[in-house]
Amino acid sequence: SLKMASDSPESLMTLCTDYCLRNLEGTLCYLLDNETLRLHPDIFLPSEICDKLVNEYVELVKTDSIFEPHESFFTLFSDPRSTRLARIHLREHIVQDQDLEAIRKQDLIELYLTNCEKLTAKSLQTLVSFSHTLISLSLFGCCNIFYEEENPGGCEDDCLVNPTRQVLVKDFTFEGFSRLRILNLGRLIEGVNVETLLRPLASLAALDLSGIQLNDVGFLTQWKDSLVSLVLYNMDLSEEHIQVIAQLHKLRHLDISRDHLSSYYKFKLTRRVLNLFVENLVNLTSLDISGHTMLENCTIPSMEEKMGQTSIEPAKSSIAPFRGLKRPLQFLGLFETSLCRLTHIPAYKVSGDKNEEQVLNAIEAYTEHRPEITSRAINLLFDIARIERCSQLLRALQLVITALKCHKDDKNIQVTGSAALFYLTNSEYRMEQSVKLRRQVIQVVLNGMESYQEVTVQRNCCLTLCNFSIPEELEFQYRRVNELLLNILNQSRQDESIQRIAVHLCNALVCQVDNDHKEAVGKMGFVMTMLKLIQKKLADKTCDQVMEFSWSALWNITDETPDNCEMFLNYSGMKLFLECLKEFPEKQELHRNMLGLLGNVAEVKELRPQLMTSQFISVFSNLLESKADGIEVSYNACGVLSHIMFDGPEAWGICEPHREEVVKRMWAAIQSWDINSRRNINYRSFEPILRLLPQGISPVSQHWATWALYNLVSVYPDKYCPLLIKEGGIPLLKDMIKMASARQETKEMAR
């Protein structure tokens, strides 16, 4: 019943369901007294739509952290005259007693309650109201549904001393459930008498008693003419159990598998037992014996094996008892047994640990109800993806995504699943993946980061995100990714490797994106977070990748975003700039990043007065002579000063150094640069440069701007010629050539 991650486009039905659930007030409902959802009176929906609404709602609450659950959601389906329900699948803490109670008038045919730990015996009573229509019921993992609260004493004060006690309900049975054919009681609480509970059921077709210990299963023979599927996973078997099973002659599916790590089992599978099944259960198409130890040799000696192509013909079977099968099995579960490695296995689908196909079959078969087995199977897949090449990539990805969604709170699955995703999404598999599938990967990765502060999960998730094109592929979850990464970087104790990857991702996310994105991220505390990281690194006297990426990220996020530039100044950014310069005089990459950022700050007219101090101007002037990173540091220092000069002599509020002296040093610097320099810089717009052209107040600023344009369009014509034309640079250059105040060499370059 698990919803598999799919790669085909969503159906119109799914898109509409999703839209309605995210906008209930705007579509199907109105709010009564500002709190209770009510269905509009003229809405009538058939079960095909209602089932989907309920099932998708459960899915959304479980897997989409942004989706808000509604207290009164289930009350929308309380009246079968306007909304019909037939087949619904509810899971975990999402559903409570009052939710089932709300839909008790519905004629449900199929009700799956999986791991609904909040349900108590009140819900057992609600089940009775579905008894006349219910065909299929699952109470898997509903560990409290047979408990009711008993109030001792009944007096108010006494209750405070003596809180409610949980009492096991003994008298409930499936009396009256006349149509019930399919029942899953997996992981039922100890103490409930299964035989009494089930006795009233006339003709059961499928029964799942996973994880229940029953010494006597003789009562199963009352359905020997109707039972086609029986699951006894993790039940400790004995000879008596085997004799009973052999009488259930209609069985098509039998699962007696176990988790070999969970506890000590006395029972061992023998050749005789398998022979008994093959002889008596003639309709068998599916058998699961995973996790069992074989007591004696069930295999054909390799000398007698038929050589050649591997065969699924029973006659050639390497497992001796299965030579008696009339036809190959549809499914054979051999996970964590020695048999899965044999040559000839008479089944179309085998779960095991021998190769990719068997491992994927195991993940597929066990994900929903057996996370403990699934995490080990995913671990095997991880090794296959890491060491060999996955041949069924699409299927592998879909299965891992499904497992991660289904077991959001299972640490083992989150660790192994996130590690497998890293290898399954790397570049060699890129071509085979659609946008939709890659988006699903991003969603589960972010879920993992949200739910787990655990180092391994966080690292795996961050590494997996590095396999995507950033920011493009993360655009659809932009806010959320940034929030999660900042959250990681703001933690007091940090893992070095995660910090490095997270800063790298943050930097990539604010590179080449629209200004409104940058502003939004700035408001989330991005600038402050980066400055804190820089502060920490300074204190440790280390200039590593984290330090360089942090300055680079600040350079990116302040690009044409005045609010973020102002934040940088307000949070003592300039103080950190000076300290870094002093502490790391030789770090060229660092200097380039810091000056690129200050270039952005200097472009904001209102902030320039804050740069007008003797100390800052001296530092920028001295950096004009820097040969760090080619011309980049000198170029950026000159850019900062060009914007300051553009404000005119009256804005020069300092005595030292003199304005003319700085101007002279700027001319000298520009003349020393090679006009054909290849660049370590990326312009999205020329606007801040172009504004320095139509003015006569600072010819050196005009010259710097013209040099910048000339260098960029001649070294990278394909990229920058169209940008210069688009932003109206040509007429500005033509006008400047006619200006008397412009220097001759500037006009030459402009021409």
UniProtKB/TrEMBL annotation:
It comes from the Eukaryota. The keyword Plastid does not apply. Residues 196-337 form the Zer-1-like leucine-rich repeats region domain. SMART domains: ARM. One of its GO terms (cellular component) is Cul2-RING ubiquitin ligase complex. The keyword Acetylation applies. Pfam families: LRR_Zer-1, ZER1-like_2nd. InterPro entries: ARM-like (IPR011989), ARM-type_fold (IPR016024), Armadillo (IPR000225), LRR_dom_sf (IPR032675), LRR_Zer-1 (IPR056845), ZER1-like_C (IPR055142), Zyg-11_UBL_adapter (IPR051341). Keywords: Acetylation, Leucine-rich repeat, Repeat, Ubl conjugation pathway. PANTHER family: PROTEIN ZER-1 HOMOLOG, PTHR12904. Interacts with the ELOC-ELOB/Elongin BC complex. Part of an E3 ubiquitin ligase complex including ZER1, CUL2 and Elongin BC. Belongs to the zyg-11 family. This is Protein zer-1 homolog. It comes from Brachypodius melanocephalos (black-headed bulbul).
